[in-house]
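Dear Dr. K.,

Following up on our conversation at the group meeting, I've run the structure prediction for Flagellar biosynthetic protein FlhB from Alteribacillus iranensis. I'm pasting the input sequence below exactly as I used it, so you can double-check it against your construct before we proceed with anything downstream. Let me know if the numbering doesn't match what you have in your notebook.
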Amino acid sequence: MKLSLDLQYFAQEKTEKATPKKRQDTRKKGQVPKSTDVNTALILLGVFLFMFLYAGVLGDFIVNMMQHVFLEYIHWEVSEQTIPSLFNEIAAESAIVILPIMLITLVVGVSASLIQVGFMFTPEAIAFKLEKINPLKGIKRIFSIRALVELLKSLLKIILVGVLVFSIIWFSLDSLVFLSQRPVAAGFGELARLTGIIGASVAFLLLLLAVPDYMYQRFDHEKQIRMSKQDVKDEHKKMEGDPLIKSKRRKKQMDMAMQRMMQEVPEADVVITNPTHFAIALKYDEDTMAAPKVTAKGADYVALRIKSLAQKHEIVMVENKPLARSLYAQTEIGDEVPENLFKAVAEVLAYVYRLTNE
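The predicted structure tokens came back this morning:
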């Protein structure tokens, strides 16, 4: 009894790698190894690298916009007509600044996801399920090992990012202290430069941290989709099909093959019989065939059907027990007559041709 329970336990233990079908099924459900840290790091890196290139244009545009506000809009009369116009112009000018950054964010975010998981459309993953709002499962996820790992990762990132930002600010403290004594444009440029350095440095740091996180996500995903030996057997059995269905399919295939074979009997030149146990139909066309071919063969009941069709369509039947047994054993349907049986078959065909020409 104990041995049986142990075997059952080992059969259910998740020790096997996921099969291709299991991987495909989990992918359809949206379960793929993906690190959000990779997306975050690449988006930050892409945005701040773009900002380094776009900073001059952005700075000039903002300065011109502020000059326009303080030189033009300040003289406008505040009324129901001027306020909507004011906000529309400011919104349009702000969009010119923000839209390129949002576009870069979108492109980099989509590209990061494609790099990790490829193109994937999973309507099943976004379908509404009551179990998704089950508070018990929510609590279980909060206090799971996975949640603890995510908490430790977040704390580590906060500490490292904090140390990095503090270090950059500390080494730039001299320029920040005298920032109030510099012109507005120069001060703005210094702050923009420092912000860009901090952003790019944090992005590189998060990208470095994302590499082990992605490896962990792959490891955890492989662990989650592992299968037991019984699962593999069940899947294989399901893919192979039910034995009853397989037998019915095989029977149908045999019936179709039998039907095709019987359609060839009326075209045969001769049927060689045992006379009761075997029947082999032969056809020969000297213009298209190098040797006579077996178009149908059978034993017992099938042989009886072949002989019945041959008699119905007035096909010559020749009784030759040794030749019938040899042809049945050495050939398959569609095969040419073996070389060692050429002479015997030629004699039979010669007899048939003499008989039909009389």
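Two things stood out to me. Residues 65 and 93 are 8 Å apart (CA to CA). Confidence is low (pLDDT under 50) at residues 1-11.

Best regards,
J.T.
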